[in-house]
Amino acid sequence: MSARDTILGKVRSSLHAGANDQTRRKAVEERLKKAAPGVVPARGKLPSAQRVALFSEMAGKLSASVEHVRKAADVPKAVTEYLRGRNLPSAVRMGADPRLAAMPWGKQRALELRPGPSDGDDEAGVSHATAAIAETGTLVMTSGAENPTTINFLPEHHIVVVDAADIEGDLETVLARIRKAYGKGRMPRTVNLISGPSRSGDIEQKIILGAHGPRALHIIVVGG
Amino acid sequence: MDITSPTFKANARVALADGQLQKALGNVRAGFIDKRRKAVDALPEFEELRDRARDIKNHALEHLDLYLETYEAKVLSSGGTVHWAETAGQARDIILDICRKADARTVTKGKSMITEEIGLNDFLEKNGIRPVETDLGEYIIQLRGEHPSHIIAPAVHLNKEQVEADFRRVHDHLPDHRDLSEPEALLGEARRVLRSQYFEADVGITGANFLVAETGTSIIVTNEGNGDLTQVLPRVHVVVASIEKIVPTLEDVSQILRVLARSATGQEMSVYTTLSTGPRRKGDVDGPDEYHVVLLDNGRSSMLGTEFQDMLRCIRCGACMNHCPVYHAVGGHAYGWVYPGPMGAVLTPSLIGVDKGGHLPNASTFCGRCESVCPMRIPLPKMMRHWREREFERGLNPATQRFGLGLWAFFARRPRLYRLAAALGIPVLSLLGGRKRRFAWLPFAGGWTRHRELPAPESRTFMQQWRDREAVARQAGR
């Protein structure tokens, strides 16, 4: 007997499954089909206008910096200014996201755009978030050539663009959106929920930013 | 790893006399408790979420076979591979086989207690493969040849001076004048050294906080980002997880996530919560070519349907040990195996046997703080009591203890005799207590009186005083 069958057999006999198997199967099927949300904190259920404010506040508390621009076309300038303000080289790693590609990067003459995944030598990377969560100040990133996962972790500074309209109240709403986009039971290869820059408290419980991921997380909220 | 749980008492004695350790343990008391309290107070729905989290896991455990099958099918359909391992040995062999097929020389690892449980690092090393721990705390203890002393803060037993000494010993490229006195500098050094390792590794191994049946997704929850670099850069990603990590849906995960980080570190969310489903896809420019899941039983299926089933709800947040006076006093290594604190006191006898782990459920004051903070509402003290009963039934505790318990049971089962003996004995003890009304020494109770005095009983028994009160109450009622 394979290890698989042995384990499943032991589980079944420990649970005394068998006689009531039909009921059990039905309960499982229904639960998977419904995927009912549970308790969502009041804080996660704010109307749209207040969601943007709460998201900015929560992300700020997590040591991310947040700036607001009026329209997508303002993003390249904001990126340039962020780099200049921190004396960083004028270069960013960026994926093939069409929303980013449509922005007027050409106007930032000195800014070098490096396409593709990060090779670990980038000071700064730019990504476009799929969504964000006001309840916890969390960014939601999905993998693909548009926004390679390596950009979320390797550059020292991670700059994330998010549309104000994509800021949802809670994680449940975001997951329902992903389910709708990818189909029931299917997921992107990687979904990164990011709440602030990387940190560690492993030495004497002292929290230090920039453990293995980015030391700084800068969020540019577009519109709203 | 060598199991030293049978010598818990001796381990504890050494720990209590270790000045460095005692200093470091002060950080546990000072850090975790306050942070958790603040995070919990800031969420009015917290208690309701704990109920939900408990119910979700109960449901998942009651239907575990079916959810495991669903999960497996989903992993396969997303291009991943599922391996089943009944024992630690089987899991090790499966992982070694994956590494060999990938021609792996270096393996990076995200923080994972399950790979500690199966003793993976030693095994890989013996087979010529170099495992590199990438979580800062795990990296430090790997340098020291130690094991984690806490399930979420593996190096919590160390002070920064000790870490500096280890870095200077092992990182021989460091000039003497480099200042490494502060945690920032130590972290910077570890970050620099580990960066190249992520790229060098052929296989990345992580654990999983959750496995989602609905989608075939594995989830890790971290703060440093090391787990993500471990799984996105090498060609092969191996997830090692025990079977009880299954939850039905993404919505169910959302509920448990809200109690996990708050209970663990007092964060509302950990920095990185990563959902992984299968290997690199068409059009992807990064991510692993292969995605393997090793599903480990190692004794869990035998806990189902017993009084220890509730323990399988555990999400490894560490709140129980953060609030445990015994853990505060002796730290994690004294427990002698992988899982310390109250959760370890229940889990260890289940996984390695009560004959080896029997001391651990006795290492409790039954103050109940662990249960009161457990996000999954696991009745830890009750289960420790179950283990004490089993230990007694199997005759594993020392003869003096058994004799004492037997004597007490003899009287306890004969209430009249008990009352008579108490009524005779208590005035005598009360008299012997002297003016201080305390004993500095008592026969057969030297273990107690060596460290503190035993209060002498009052002159009358509880039952006598109770009868008097009842009589007064009856008169007043009339």
Question: Quaternary state, please?
Answer: heterodimer
CATH architecture of the domain at 43-298 in chain B: 3-Layer(aba) Sandwich
Along the chain, the helix and strand elements of chain A come as HHHEHEHEEEEHEEHEEEE
Contiguous uncertain segments of 5+ residues of chain B: none
Helix count of chain A equals: 7
Proportion of residues in β-strands of chain A: 15-25%
Output the CATH class name of the domain at 43-298 in chain B: Alpha Beta
What would you call the shape of chain A?
elongated
- State the name of the first-level CATH class of the largest domain in chain A: Alpha Beta
Radius of gyration of chain A: 21 Å
Question: Could you say what the CATH topology of the largest domain in chain A is called?
Answer: Rossmann fold
* The CATH H-level homologous superfamily of the largest domain in chain A: NagB/RpiA/CoA transferase-like
Main pleated-sheet profile of chain B: 6 strands, parallel
- The CATH topology of the domain at 43-298 in chain B comes to Rossmann fold
The stretches of 5 or more residues of chain A where confidence is low (pLDDT under 50) are: none
The residue fraction in helices of chain B comes out at: 40-55%
Rounded radius of gyration of chain B (Å): 26 Å
Per CATH, the architecture of the largest domain in chain A is 3-Layer(aba) Sandwich
- CATH H-tier superfamily of the domain at 43-298 in chain B: NagB/RpiA/CoA transferase-like
Structure, explained:
The complex is a heterodimer of chains A (224) and B (478). Chain A has 224 residues and is of the alpha/beta class. Chain A folds into two domains: 34 residues, no CATH class; 177 residues, Rossmann fold. Chain A contains seven helices and twelve strands. In chain A, the strands form three sheets. Chain A has a six-stranded parallel beta sheet. Chain A has a four-stranded mixed beta sheet with strand order 8-5-6-9. The radius of gyration of chain A is 21 Å and the shape is elongated. In chain A, 49% of the residues are buried. The model of chain A has no long low-confidence stretch (mean pLDDT 96). With 478 residues, chain B is α/β, with parallel strands linked by helices. Among the domains of chain B are: 256 residues, NagB/RpiA/CoA transferase-like (Rossmann fold); 67 residues, no CATH class. Chain B is 52% helix and 11% strand. Chain B is built from 23 helices and twelve strands. Chain B has a six-stranded parallel beta sheet, with helices on both faces. In chain B, strand 5 and strand 6 form a beta hairpin. The longest helix of chain B is centred in the N-terminal third of the chain and has 23 residues. The model of chain B has no long low-confidence stretch (mean pLDDT 95). Classes of the chains: A alpha/beta (224), B alpha/beta (478). At the A-B interface, helix 1, helix 2, helix 6, helix 7 and strand 9 of A face helix 2, helix 3, helix 4, helix 8 and helix 10 of B.
